Amino acid sequence: MAEDNAAAKAAEGASDSGSKPAGKPVILYALVVLNMLVVAGVGAMLYLNKQKEHAQAEAVDKVVNAEAEAAKGEHGEHGAAKPEENFVGQMIPLETFLVNLSGHRGNMLLKVSMELEVEGEKIADEIDKRKPQIRDIIIILLSSKTHAQMESADGKEFLREEIRDTVNTFLSTGKIKRVHFTEFIFN
Q1: Which three-class secondary structure string do you get for 22-84?
Q2: Pairwise CA distance, residues 177 & 29, whole Å
Q3: SS3 148
Q4: Residue 120, Ramachandran bin (φ over 0: left; ψ between -120 and 50: alpha; else beta)
Q5: For every residue of 88-121, which 3-state class applies, written as one string?
Q6: Among 127, 136, 132, 110, which residue's Cα sits nearest to residue 177?
């Protein structure tokens, strides 16, 4: 009889231990649901970001089309642009610039190659004679910039205009029309 009681208690213990791990599936289900919510949240963020980029691209297209229509109106019925706007002048290459960017304690370098577009031989000769002075001014401009200021297309466009305007202030025989970057690398 003692053996029957021991066998019965052992059978009850086995059936009790089989019913106790019910807490583990609840935790597992909660983790699965939480994982699904995180994935859905990331997907929603990516979707909304794409929608925002698409809306910005459409807005830029509208502005560009409006400017093109306005330019057509300025140039008359034929839509011909003024000759000086489309004219590509003489290109004067400058040596490559390698500068430390501001705010990075020498840890961020910028390597830039550029060409200056000018109109006429006189201005080209003056630029050749003043290349050290022009390089000095450009080095000072570049090294005063931060990575954040120049990483966007708008930042690069602003830098082009700033270089052109600054160099033009001391040229006497003509002006630089455009600055063209042929290499622009952050390191």
Answers
A1: HHHHHHHHHHHHHHHHHHHHHHHHHHHHHHHHHHHHHHHHHHHHHHHHHHHHHCCCCCCCCHH
A2: 67
A3: helix
A4: left
A5: CCEEEECCCEEEECCCCCCCCEEEEEEEEEECCH
A6: 127
Q: In whole angstroms, give the CA distance from residue 46 to residue 50.
A: 6
User: DSSP 3-state assignment of 5?
Assistant: helix
Cα–Cα distance measured from residue 109 to residue 143, given in angstroms and rounded to the nearest whole number: 9
Q: pLDDT tens digit string along 7-49?
A: 555 555 545 555 555 567 888 899 999 999 999 998 888 888 8
How far lies 18's CA from each of 12, 28, 29, in Å?
10, 18, 19
Distance between CA atoms of residues 171 and 125, nearest Å: 11
CB 146 within 8 A of CB 102: yes
The pTM score is: 0.53
User: What tens-digit pLDDT sequence spans the chain (187 residues)?
Assistant: 555 555 555 555 545 555 555 567 888 899 999 999 999 998 888 888 888 877 777 777 777 677 667 666 655 545 444 545 566 788 999 999 999 888 867 688 989 999 999 988 899 899 999 999 999 999 999 999 888 888 889 999 999 999 999 999 988 998 999 999 999 998 8
Q: Which amino acid type is present at position 129? A: K
